[in-house]
Amino acid sequence: SQTATVEPSPEIGTTPMAVKDPIKIGFLHIGETGGLAIETNRLVDYVGEVLGVEVVYGGALTSVDSVITNAENLIAAGVDGIIVCNFTEQSMVNIAKMCEENHVYFAQYFRTLTDKDVIAQLEGNKYYVGRTYESEYDVAYKLGMELVIAGSKNVALLSYNHGDTTAETRYKGYRDVFNENGVKIVAEEWDIAADGGAEVASNLLAAYPEIDGWALISSSYAPGVRVALENAGKGKMPIVGVDFYDSMEEDMRDGYLLAIGGGHQASAFYSFLMVYNAINGAYNSANFPMDVQDNILVLKNYEDYQNYKKWYVGDVLPYTAEEIKAMTITFNPTHTIADIQKAAKAISLEDVMTRHEGVVK
Amino acid sequence: MEEQVMVHLQDLHKTFGSTKAVDGVSLDIDKGEIRGLVGENGSGKSTLMCMVAGLLKPDSGSMTVEGQPYAPQHQAHANDKGVSMIVQEVNTLAGMTVAENIFVGHEQKFINHGLRDLKAMFVEAKEYLEEMQISGINVKSDIDAYTLEQRKLIELVRAAHIKPKLLIIDETTTVLSQKGRAELYKLIHKTKDSGNSVVFISHDLREVLDLCDSVTVMRDGQLVDTVSARGMSENDLKSLMVGRDLVGSYYREDYGMLTSSEVVLEVRNLNCPGKLNDVSFELYRGEILGFGGLSESGMHNLGKALFGVEYNTTGSVTLEGETINIHSIKEAIKSGIGYVPKDREHEALINNADILDNICITCMDQLQKGVYLSPIKKKNFAREQARRLNIKMNDVDQFVYTLSGGNKQKVTLTKWLARGANIFVLDSPTRGIDVMTKAMIYDLLTCMKNDGCSIIVISEELLELIGVSDRILILKNGNISGEFVRSKDLSEEDLVSCMI
Amino acid sequence: MNKLKKGMVLVGALVITYVVFKILQPSRFGSLSSMFILLQQCMISVIMAYGTYFLLEMGAFDMTLGANAILSAIVGCRLSVIFGLPGLLIGALITGACLGLVNGIMTSKIKAPSMIISVGLVIIYESLGLVVMGGGSTLRIDSQFRGLGMAPWSIVISLMIAAIIFFLDRYTCFGVHVNAIGSSEPIARSMGININKTKITAFLISGVCAALMGVVNLCYNTTISAATNLSSTTTVFQPLMACMIGLAFKKHMNPIVAILLGSFFLALLQNGLLTNGLESSMQNIFVGVALLVVIKVTSNPRRYDVIK
Amino acid sequence: MKKETLPKILKSSAILIGLIVLVVFFAIVTKGQSITLRNLKLILGQSIILMLVSTGVFFVMTLGCMDFSVGANLALSCYVMAKVSTVNIPLGIILTLVTGLIIGCWNGVIHAKLKLPSFLVTLSTMYILNGLVIQLTASEPVPVPFELFKLDEFAFKIPLLFVVLFIAYYLFRYTRFGSDCRMIGAGETAAIYSGIDVDKVKIQAFCIAGVLASLAGFMNGIRTGAASANAGSDMPFNVLIALVIGGLPSGGGAKSRFSAPVIGSILISVLSNGLVLINLAPMVQNLVKGIIFIVLIIIMAEKQMPKFLHKKTIGVLAEEKLSQ
Ligand SMILES: Nc1ncnc2c1ncn2[C@@H]1O[C@H](COP(=O)(O)OP(=O)(O)OP(=O)(O)O)[C@@H](O)[C@H]1O
Ligand SMILES: Nc1ncnc2c1ncn2[C@@H]1O[C@H](COP(=O)(O)OP(=O)(O)OP(=O)(O)O)[C@@H](O)[C@H]1O
Ligand SMILES: [Mg+2]
Ligand SMILES: [Mg+2]
Fold first, then answer.
1. Which H helix or E strand runs over B15?
2. At a CB cut-off of 8 Å and minimum separation 6, what does D40 contact?
3. Running DSSP on this structure, what letter comes out for residue B430?
4. Which of A76, A96, A284, C281 has its Cβ near the most Cβ atoms within 10 Å?
């Protein structure tokens, strides 16, 4: 086991990096495709630019192993901090060890820890700054409720691969709300490819004529379901799902998409700020890990969508440069984690709209 | 004179890496002539003719056909110019129909307004087959369904159907039965009579002399001489080929010496549906037992059966008292049988592995001590074994495909000798091998015999059988149809009478 | 006789599968409408299967077909916004043809087996797909083109392809040459067959088929998203399997028909399992087993046959 | 006396040169960062899993066959280890290897005894195992007991790796098994006629591939701390690439060299590591990777269709051969 810190690059010699050397933060991004991933990367790039931080992207995340490999490579690349969206909690143990050995601060986004063994392992790790996570359970529950209100009795549930923490939590949310309200999940399909919605939905419709509502663990299947409905001549049928997708506009407008949850790209943003501040010595590591909870937006109609488009992902992102700087120790000596927590707790369509009144035109 | 010449070769050269395969050959082949081409293995016959047939490109030199400059790009191109060749190796396309094989490269012939006219193709193919009186072949069925000989005949049709001005036949007779040869000879004469020319390559000098008007002799890639076949004797040819006089024949000279009466191998009621029925015989210690017959008589299957590679055989094979499982190569080898198959390219040797591996492959259990197999030991072992038959090579790490057919055959024998096998089954041991190598293989057989090995020689060359074996059994569609004991006045005719 | 029997194996498998599932799920499985939906779906995937036909005949493999389909569809989709239907079709087909061409040239000029080269190319094509996607994650095709992906048209298109492939295979020199190369490249060369030309053509065809499949698929799903990390290769396996089934029965029935039956068989199997509430993970297991059974049934190798 | 021409020598060591060029390039671009002792150890550590798997597949490919099931095998073995280790760790490790052995044996037996093409057999195994693993790891990944995390150390992994490599090398070079593999790859018919028990050798080779894949599964377990469905999903192709750019003739045979799996795997790790170090945009990273693979393949690969992809393999099995 190897405990030397990162060798600074030769020509800077031994001058402490805090002085001139720009801070490097490693970003284990969840991909380049998918609305969420794209918006997340955009926001992280932006904050990096505002704070003059060099954002180092890890390689592609194909398997759990690749998460660790990329973390290793980032550390080797000499980053001062890492934000990671882990596939499995257990892999955090290895990453944590690595970061501690190399004095690299790290934080999770989109994720928290639930496995008590893992928590035990990471307790008292001076570099585990914290995590930003949203309640996947709640959002699924909320969306399920929308279906209940819309009067669905027999819903079909589509999901991507089993074993993914997010998918499973969302599943629980749906399952509970349906149980409590006497709605039956007549058919559930897992491991569906992003563009496999149409095929599966068609087959389900043929096999289960009684289906009258769709709960999607990933809303990327929504267009497919819509196609299946149209092809089968079933007319409109309520669809709810999590995670925004590019072409959701039409589906919202035409009233196929009853409600959709998502827009939580800020998650990585908060973790990024936490790590940035930690690197600049803002926090007392005794308080690590620090929790930040943010919200998943739920759009219930076309108007919501238009607002989201205008205020959230328009030319102005949810936070302006000033707002970002206000959340960093380097620009705001009085900064505490509470700033970030407050911002995260508060974030919502309304919040952004009020804050950016006048900024966005 | 000029209009007499069909093909003229001017100072052709071809080298493969270090080997000068063809070294400045100039040659005229007249119209309506059957020209024999002989020479030791590796003397350049195939290479030379491959260049004429467009299979190889000459490094330098020029050719003319009927006075027209001629530089074939590939076989089909040569065919268009009226030159076609039947090559030494099997040259058919597996997984395709007979008809497709006959016309491959000439498909456009059957394209009428954009469509490939299969019917026409089948009809025409059928015609050609009938024309040459080749029966039992369905032009629509897959070529894989036919035997080596039948496939050769199909190649024959492919070469003949274009009515070539020059027809080249390279060591083809060796795989043909008497009947097939008859067809071949007929074709050759027909070609001659229609005023076209034939080049005939063979190691069977007798055949060459009988068939050809004149004979060209090659040595080390160079042209030695072209002589008229009339009044030429085999020995004259041999000495031309080898470059010095050879005295006498190279067969065994001993007669009437009695072999031991100890039975080493006893075969009872060996059956193999459609190939062998109720074949029984015994092999004595130190005996050379010859098997003769037409190539379809089942003698080749007999060899396979004894070695355990023939399918669904029944019957019993008893080796020095104990019966062995006739379905297991392993057991055959364990009980000291060594088998030299007819198909040298696929079955006898691993062509793209080196000599070392090919020799040691049968001797692993001797070479490996516990779980350790010493490469050095392997190498030395292979070296000394290879020396026993003085194989012509740079070193044992030379790849086998770079060896001449003759040397390949030596390697095959070596690998069984190395294992100390004492019963040998040799299927066509001298096929396509030149006189010198032949002679040395016959001597080898005698030595092995004297060392107490028992040898079964399966061969289509009757003289060879008469020459080397103590006893000859003739097979005729699966049955033993005659037995002959070694004697001076045994003639081919005697054997043939039992074969057909 | 034997020939016929072997041919019937495939049909038999279809019937048996249907009957079994029908018994298991009388109400849910096998209604006419659902079978029709199934037919539509397999009509789409079969286009790619036909594309691989000549490649398999030559013993060549092309893992890029999936990536090709996606990239072509993306290009077509983008162009359709500007040029409408022509943009969609021509754009996609030209892209597919170009990619096919690249594969062909690569495999015929480079000293390396096609499968391995194509794996390398997949990575490139996938990232190109991302680039063309231009930031977005999913593209949606205008609803006016949806017809292409549905009943009359999708079927017409794939039948058209089937006809073309059949024609090429049976009535042109190209078909023979492909076969010859698959049987023995050196001999084919010595017979004056232009190896490179034939190979490149075959890859070109497969490329075009992949693109067409991409378009039809896009019109059926209405959306398309780029793939990453070789994920596109998974889309190749099913058509590949269908095509292998087709080739396996070549000696017993017309391969073009066999391929169609094969891909319908696979679709039927999965649909049956789905209606029995088995997850796609379970479906994998069955597909695996089915694959094994099919090869076993169609092959009867002998002792000492060499099979790699 | 071999007459090795210069181009020949260059070709035979091309991959090493390629590796060196790559390393030097990254070293320059990252100002030496990529060749710090730590990073080099990192790369070695990252290549272990791939190296184990491709070492196993190396034997199979030497035969001229292929094994596509190694990835799924890895995932399943990883699951077995995670599950059983919670009860008893040694037992867990043993059962993990047994799992791999069984899978390899299955592949081998089906391929050799039923005479079905390895490419399809292992493809079907892959499908089956994938389904199985997804079923088993459904609802959530299965954690590995923490005692085992201690093993995720160079002190343990590197010696283990070297032991495995040594044994494999020994098998390949100094036992008849190795030479039998090469001979079968070079000419199976002749090998049969020379009394090699081809079926046995094939089964053994597939077993080795299976066991090494499961060992890799074990490594994956202690590294990632849990068994999850997508573990090893990218294995089959990576192995293929690694072996080919490592210089293994894609048809196997007598020319197979043991250096292939080792150098190939390391090279792949160097590449992915270096691309992160020079902080390329993720999209570009893939592009560059693909291009470099192609280039290396162009340099390395032999013109020779892998036997496991040969026409006979993919379908036209049906017809009987009357001739012999
Ligand atoms: N690929 C090759 N590379 C190098 N040398 C070769 C190669 N093929 C053949 N040779 C040389 O050719 C010589 C004889 O090979 P050839 O193929 O001509 O056999 P052959 O003359 O036909 O003998 P036979 O009539 O017994 O088949 C060998 O001594 C060998 O040195
Ligand atoms: N493929 C090859 N590669 C390298 N050298 C070869 C090759 N084929 C033949 N040769 C060389 O060409 C020489 C002549 O070979 P060729 O086959 O023409 O002899 P041949 O007269 O046909 O012998 P045989 O009577 O046994 O057929 C051989 O000695 C060999 O050295
Ligand atoms: Mg010759
Ligand atoms: Mg020869």
1. strand B5-16
2. none
3. T
4. A76
Q: Is the CB of B401 under 6 A from ligand 1?
A: yes
Burial status of residue D262 (CB atoms within 10 A of its CB: 0-12, 13-18, 19 or more): buried
pLDDT tens per residue across all 361 residues of chain A: 344 444 444 443 343 444 457 899 999 998 887 778 888 999 999 999 999 999 999 887 878 888 999 999 999 988 999 999 988 888 899 999 999 999 999 999 998 888 888 898 888 899 999 999 988 899 999 999 999 999 999 999 999 877 777 888 899 999 999 999 999 999 888 888 877 888 889 888 888 889 999 999 998 899 899 989 988 888 889 999 998 887 788 888 988 899 999 888 899 999 999 999 999 988 888 888 999 998 899 999 899 999 998 888 888 889 999 999 999 999 999 999 999 999 999 998 889 989 888 777 7
User: What does the alpha-carbon distance between residue A107 and residue A90 come to, in Å, rounded to a whole number?
Assistant: 15
Q: Among candidates B500, C304, C40, which has minimal Cα distance to A227? A: C40
In three state form, how does the secondary structure of chain C look?
Answer: CHHHHHHHHHHHHHHHHHHHHHHHCCCCCCCHHHHHHHHHHHHHHHHHHHHHHHHHHHCCCCCCHHHHHHHHHHHHHHHHHHHHHHHHHHHHHHHHHHHHHHHHHHHHHCCCCHHHHHHHHHHHHHHHHHHHHCCCCEEECCHHHHHHHCHHHHHHHHHHHHHHHHHHHHHCHHHHHHHHHHHCHHHHHHCCCCHHHHHHHHHHHHHHHHHHHHHHHHHHHCEEECCCCCHHHHHHHHHHHHHHHHHHCCCCCCHHHHHHHHHHHHHHHHHHHHHCCCCHHHHHHHHHHHHHHHHHHHCCCCCCCCCC
**Neighbour-count burial of A143, counting CB atoms closer than 10 A to its CB (0-12 exposed, 13-18 middle, 19+ buried):** buried
Task: Give CA–CA dist B172/B153, Å, rounded.
Answer: 9
| Residue B330: CA count within 13 A, CB half-sphere | 7
The answer, yes or no, to whether any atom of ligand 1 lies below 6 A from the CB of B42, is yes
Is the ipTM here above 0.90?
A: no
Q: Identify the closest residue of chain B to C247 by CA–CA distance.
A: B95
> Crossing angle of helices C255-275/C151-171, nearest 10°?
140
Dist CA A101 CA A125 (whole Å): 10
C104 in Cβ contact with C201 (< 8 Å): yes
Cβ–ligand 1 contact at B101 (below 6 Å): no
Neighbours of B179 (CB within 10 A): 16
Element spanning A260, H or E: strand A257-262
Tokens linked to A207: 């096999």
Measured distance CA(C175)–CA(C166) in Å, rounded = 9
Question: Would you say A70 and A84 are in contact if contact means Cβ atoms under 8 Å apart?
Answer: no
Q: Among C294, B111, B182, C34, which Cα is nearest to D116's?
A: C294
* End-to-end CA gap in chain B: 46
Collapsed DSSP state (helix, strand, coil) of residue B340: strand
Mutation for testing the B interface, residue in D172, D193, D307 having most B CBs under 10 Å: D193
Residue of D nearest to B374 (CA): D174
Which of C214, C227, C223 lies closest to C140 in space, CA to CA? C223
In this prediction the pTM is: 0.83
Q: To test ligand 2's pocket by mutation, which of B15, B20, B47 has the most ligand atoms within 8 angstroms of CB?
A: B47
Peptide bond into A238 cis (omega under 30): no
Q: How do A128-134 and B454-458 pair as beta strands?
A: unpaired
* A99 close to A54: Cβ distance less than 8 angstroms: no
Residue that the structure tokens 């949810």 belong to: A318
Q: Among candidates A298, A215, A245, which has minimal Cα distance to C140? A: A245
Six token digits for residue A101: 């050995």
Rg (CA), chain D: 20
Strands C138-140 and C223-225: antiparallel
